[in-house]
């Protein structure tokens, strides 16, 4: 769930005697068959989202529905389910055009359902932490930043439609049970996301109904008393086989390796697809996720002592009070209408309404401890509430046209969105109370009254976009993609006493060339741009101009082994200009300056089937990040990343599959000034999996994570941090029909 930050995007060492500075740095955080049980469950879910939290999967009829042939059109991309593959041949996540990965002149990674299931990647952090070129910055237990090519990822999309984050991070735990796959387009993505950073766009592709009845369920038991239940039912909802539905539920609860931390979440998703005719398909869906984290941290552990030496707490150490709680809820409703026209043209209309809420009681510990006594930390309790509503409309047309005797591809359309954010922080009585040594602290801190003072935000963002993209078939071997996205972005309101007003418009071009060396190998080049309006002001009070970002990429892509394996190699150069950086204070008000940063590097990516039964997803990224003064910037970003996930179905025991995952990351550091430098050395983590199919319906699997029990910090994005999970495992029983 995406929410306004209830504290600053970066922590500094705060002085107990400087409350003004402290306050600045802690701003928060056809008709349905009435006899069908699936139809009944879906109708109840979609008609009453409030009931979703308590909903259970409907019991399916034992009689198998006859196979039906649907002659309508679907605007959704083919599913990765049941393929068992670690790649997809096609994706429209970069250009809106139906192109293969090889034909797309940009780096794209696809995380399929098979990979998520094999390695129990049940949340977005698991998915992206194992994706080429992406680093997951877990700054707190329930709030995360994501980085690619040196810049923050701020664009998550759902079936190709989305808005930039309200703040730079994601709050809560986005579950993956409802998604068929996740596409990650690295670099700027001007056609699909005109505003944001030149980092990456993450596109979540939802599961869709099938017309042949299917059902599955799974029970997982893991370390720290973690329990998870999944269920998924889909099939035709009427005798004619023109309407289908699907419902997915997941429930997870348990404790944690962290002291006092007990996360719990409930996920329900329902979707109905109706063929209104041979050329028109209507889809209506709703997803609901509620995450309730007890004992979650706001902020994290101090990373060095007053003498400058690094701290080294137990892996389980937490700064949370025993009453701390962070409750988030995310509801997403969507309606899609797809209509097939003559001559290979299709119109797709999407409307979406999203609502994310947060309700938390948080406890932050600030200060720098003494090495001998452990004393020197102070309390900062706060109660935080937020509501973020988003309304989106997207209309596009895609098809082919003939010019100069050749067929070419064209996509164009409009997009409108509005996001409204309201949040308030109620600060607790007793701010600045000295805390004991947290090394063995039990979280025993009296819950205060949250009426010391309050502050908050109320602002609205509106974006209007016109886009067009075309792929010109200049020759049998040579394709040229040209497009542009013109966006007008407006904001009004305030955030913690600072105006959020901004108004900017920009046209972001997209250019790409693809030359086929063979029917299975291509070289490509691309240029794409992006921009992001800002509300920060400089020392004279003038609002900073929008951030401008651009990306250039040159690479080669191959399809091997009957197009079951995708390989790519690329060099890239990313430029971000005028990003706001705090430059000082005038009284109690911050002022900013615009800084430039450049990222250059190369990467390799491989995904698919190497041989029968042998699947692989791997990637290596190496980059350098320089500022306008040619000095290293963002030193908390690892310069080298290696990702590997592979599974093998044993030929002598075809019902058995084994696999492993290896993640390597280079060292990182953070310079806090005054000679205080925080370092995290390079490290590698190994994960293992095994699965045995008892029969065609029942399977048993086991996963073991962080096999070597590495101890490392989850992030140096902020001046505080905490340790990643030690060795842990799970066992699951899965049934399917």
Task: Spell out the blueprint of helices and strands.
Blueprint: H1 19-25, H2 37-47, E1 90-91, E2 99-100, E3 108-112, H3 113-118, H4 124-128, E4 134-140, E5 143-148, E6 151-152, E7 155-158, E8 170-171, E9 179-186, E10 200-206, E11 214-222, E12 226-236, E13 243-253, E14 262-277, E15 280-294, E16 301-302, E17 325-340, E18 346-367, E19 377-403, E20 406-427, E21 453-475, E22 478-495, E23 498-499, E24 502-518, E25 521-532, E26 547-560, E27 565-586, E28 589-611, E29 614-627, E30 640-649, E31 656-665, E32 668-671, E33 677-680, E34 683-693, E35 698-705, E36 720-721, E37 728-736
For the report, how would you describe the main beta sheet? 22 strands, antiparallel, barrel
| Mean pLDDT score | 89
Unreliable segments of 5+ consecutive residues:
1-73
Rg measurement, Å:
25 Å
Structural class: mainly beta
Q: What percentage of residues falls in helices of 4 or more residues?
A: under 10%
Number of continuous helical runs: 4
Q: Note the overall shape.
A: globular
Number of strands: 37
How big a fraction of the residues is strand? over 45%
Tell me the distance between the termini: 32 Å
């Amino acid at each position: 769930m995406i929410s306004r930050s209830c504290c600053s995007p970066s922590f500094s060492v705060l002085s107990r005697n400087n409350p003004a500075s402290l306050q600045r740095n802690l701003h928060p955080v056809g008709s349905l068959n009435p006899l069908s049980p699936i139809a009944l469950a879906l109708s109840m879910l979609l008609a009453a989202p409030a009931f979703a939290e308590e909903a259970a999967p409907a019991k399916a009829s034992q009689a198998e529905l006859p196979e039906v042939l649907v002659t309508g059109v679907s605007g959704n991309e083919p599913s990765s389910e049941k393929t068992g593959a670690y790649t997809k041949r096609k994706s429209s996540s970069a250009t809106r055009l139906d192109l293969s990965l090889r034909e797309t002149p940009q780096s794209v990674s696809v995380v399929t359902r098979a990979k998520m299931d094999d390695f129990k990647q049940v949340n977005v952090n698991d998915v992206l932490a194992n994706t080429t070129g992406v680093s997951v910055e877990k700054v707190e237990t329930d709030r995360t930043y994501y980085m690619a090519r040196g810049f923050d990822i701020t664009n998550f999309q759902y079936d190709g439609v989305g808005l930039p984050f309200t703040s730079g991070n994601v709050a809560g735990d986005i579950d993956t049970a409802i998604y068929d796959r996740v596409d990650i387009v690295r670099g700027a993505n001007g056609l699909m996301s005109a505003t944001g950073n030149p980092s990456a766009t993450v596109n979540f592709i939802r599961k869709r109904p099938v017309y042949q009845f299917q059902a599955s369920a799974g029970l997982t038991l893991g370390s720290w008393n973690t329990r998870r239940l999944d269920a998924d039912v889909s099939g035709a909802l009427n005798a004619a086989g023109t309407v289908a539905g699907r419902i997915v539920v997941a429930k997870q609860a348990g404790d944690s390796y962290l002291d006092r931390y007990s996360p719990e979440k409930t996920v329900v998703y329902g979707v109905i697809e109706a063929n209104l005719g041979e050329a028109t398909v209507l889809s209506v869906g709703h997803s609901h996720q509620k995450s309730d984290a007890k004992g979650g941290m706001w902020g994290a552990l101090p990373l060095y002592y007053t003498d400058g030496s690094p701290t080294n707490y137990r892996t389980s150490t937490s700064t949370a009070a025993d009453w701390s709680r962070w409750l988030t809820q995310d509801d997403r409703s969507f309606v899609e209408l797809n209509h097939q026209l003559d001559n290979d043209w299709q119109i797709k209309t999407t409307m979406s309404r999203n609502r994310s809420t947060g309700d938390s009681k948080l406890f932050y510990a600030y200060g720098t401890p003494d090495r001998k006594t452990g004393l020197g930390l102070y309390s900062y309790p706060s109660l935080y509430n937020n509501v973020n509503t988003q309304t989106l409309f997207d209309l596009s047309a895609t098809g082919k046209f003939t010019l100069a005797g050749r067929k070419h591809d064209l996509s164009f359309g409009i997009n409108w969105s509005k996001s409204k954010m309201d949040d308030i922080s109620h600060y607790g009585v007793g701010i600045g109370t000295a805390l004991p040594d947290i090394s063995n602290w039990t979280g025993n801190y009296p819950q205060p009254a949250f009426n010391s003072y309050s502050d908050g935000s109320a602002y609205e963002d509106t974006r209007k976009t016109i886009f067009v993209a075309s792929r010109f078939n200049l020759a049998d071997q040579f394709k040229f993609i040209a497009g542009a996205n013109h966006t007008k972005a407006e904001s009004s309101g305030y955030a913690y006493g600072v105006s959020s007003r901004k108004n900017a418009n920009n046209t972001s071009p997209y250019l790409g060339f693809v030359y086929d060396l063979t029917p299975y190998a291509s070289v490509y080049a691309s240029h794409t741009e992006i921009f992001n309006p800002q509300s920060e002001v400089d020392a004279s009070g003038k609002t900073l101009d929008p951030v401008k970002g651009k990306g250039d990429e040159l690479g080669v892509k191959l399809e091997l082994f009957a197009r079951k394996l995708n390989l790519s190699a690329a060099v890239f150069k990313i430029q971000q200009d005028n990003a706001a950086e705090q430059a000082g204070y005038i009284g109690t008000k911050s002022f900013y300056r615009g800084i430039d940063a450049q990222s250059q590097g190369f990467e390799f990516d491989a995904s698919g089937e190497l041989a029968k039964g042998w699947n692989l997803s791997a990637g290596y990224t190496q980059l350098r990040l320089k500022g306008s003064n040619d000095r290293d910037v963002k030193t908390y970003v690892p310069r080298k990343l290696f990702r590997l996930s592979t599974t093998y179905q044993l030929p002598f025991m075809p019902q058995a599959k084994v696999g492993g995952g290896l993640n390597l990351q280079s060292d990182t550091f953070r310079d806090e000034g005054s000679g205080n430098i925080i370092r995290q050395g390079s490290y590698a983590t190994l994960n293992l999996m095994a699965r045995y199919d008892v029969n065609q319906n029942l399977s048993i699997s086991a996963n073991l994570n962080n096999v070597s029990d590495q101890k490392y910090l989850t992030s140096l994005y902020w001046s505080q941090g905490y340790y990643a999970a030690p060795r842990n495992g799970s066992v699951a029983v899965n049934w399917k029909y």
